[in-house]
Amino acid sequence: MKMLINVPETVVADGLRGLAAAHPDLNVDVDNRIVVRRDAPVAGKVGLVSGGGSGHEPLHGGFVGPGMLDAACPGEVFTSPVPDQMARAAAAVDSGAGVLFIIKNYTGDVLNFEMAAELAGDEGVQVTTVLVNDDVAVTDSLYTAGRRGTGGTLFVEKLAGAAAEEGAPLDRVAAIARQVNENSRSFGVALSACTTPAKGTPTFDLPPGELELGIGIHGEPGRERRAMMTSREIADAAVDAVVEDLRPDGPVLALVNGMGGTPLLELYGFNAEVHRALGERRVPVVRTLVGNYVTSLDMAGCSLTLCRVDDELLRLWDAPVRTPGLRWGC
Amino acid sequence: MKMLINVPETVVADGLRGLAAAHPDLNVDVDNRIVVRRDAPVAGKVGLVSGGGSGHEPLHGGFVGPGMLDAACPGEVFTSPVPDQMARAAAAVDSGAGVLFIIKNYTGDVLNFEMAAELAGDEGVQVTTVLVNDDVAVTDSLYTAGRRGTGGTLFVEKLAGAAAEEGAPLDRVAAIARQVNENSRSFGVALSACTTPAKGTPTFDLPPGELELGIGIHGEPGRERRAMMTSREIADAAVDAVVEDLRPDGPVLALVNGMGGTPLLELYGFNAEVHRALGERRVPVVRTLVGNYVTSLDMAGCSLTLCRVDDELLRLWDAPVRTPGLRWGC
Questions:
Q1: Domain spanning A8-183, CATH class
Q2: Which of A186, A262, B100, B101 has its CA 20 to 30 A from that of A158?
């Protein structure tokens, strides 16, 4: 598999150098692998820190900035960052108002963020953690116990980020993050496997004419292999899986997310089918985001995330945000 | 090749339905294939219209909105839209201040936009046209005479769009568009071919271990096939090709563009090498955009566009824009 890289060993560092070159608003520590908003720590503001394996860009480094994360810790591709890195990020963004760790539910990430919370606590930083586990496809998987954290992470980071930007205290920001996670559900579909730079070949076999329903964002197995389906059929399957679990009784935000290798033209066509399917099920969609936001390197495919919102969460969604990956209102 | 579609025949219409569902700010006429900003025509404002074959999203439909295009006309995949469609778009956005057609240099697009300008003129709409031909790779190609229009189109649409939004008259908006085109140069590289829905198989053969330098955005042949190169080597080749032709003697805007199938992590790594290469050649980069903006369906690869700017063009770049694909300041 051909890649636009130098050598696999420098992919993450090269990406961070490029992020720094493009976004002077970010403070990128390439050696320690920490991306921090340049004005951190912001006086009186709760600091939001997330991170995880690289390969899901723009998540998380591309979501650092006013109105979203204060810092991100990228690990190697599909590999958890380390506790020292996270503790250093916490120290960099703590204004004294405390820090929230937003953790996608993968065993390595959870262990390392918990250790980092202890390390930061020893240094006098008050840390609260929130787990994101929105993926309804499977319980327990290759890299985790329980449900995986996927597209819902974007909603948690945006909505908790908006609350923190407005000056909400740590317990309130954490409560919003948990509320968002509890009200978010995702389901992903792969049309192709992804290829990590280190391996150089697809991480799993997906024969021509087949797709995998319920895929994770690292190529972990999903619910089932099926003969190739139309966009309409895939939308019905994804909407059914999410709606049956979430049981929305009011407005939702929708994230129609590309896995990295699917053209935007196809994602918009899929969005049309998602809106049709949600309309048939009487689920009102109040905001929709279409694009590559929580990716899996070059995997072809998509995921759907819905987040139930009340007036307050909708207001936080519309609040200004200024990051490389998500930007409006400023 | 597996695709997230229903049938090839409805790919463009499905995409437009999905665009409409996600972006209530746009008025999407699916039957006539016209995307218009909802508040058009804006009193006293010059209308900007572009268009071209689909498959390059977010170009052009994703660049419709305040500060950029007033309307876009998508054709079938890699196929020019038709004159009626363009004339209808012109009528929809004309406030009496006239309309600028921004045309990428492909023979079909040029012929059809010229015919549309006559049709619109017959209906009393004053139309001026500007051609974008920024690709330095080849002169004359599969679909055009002269140089192709590629990534520079984004700069033309953004900067002329900002001028129009500020109330500049038609001759001034057209002059800025021409100035931007004259000061923009692009060079693209393919690591894989793209696959159109209608054909279902890659549009050309690119053997394992080879890349193509100077590729177009429809898989047209480039300058040469070479054994696979590193990101550093590709950046040097692209920067040399662009800089030798543009000969910048001051600040530039840089677009580090993905062709659709290359992960953002790799694009950022490539951006690091582009900045290194430009630094070595003493070219100061004042703004950088990294991502999938002028794509070629699922093609893996990238392009580099540089645009020489003076203080006025830089100010227009920073001016507010609010479109699905490009958004800041509002």
A1: alpha beta
A2: A262
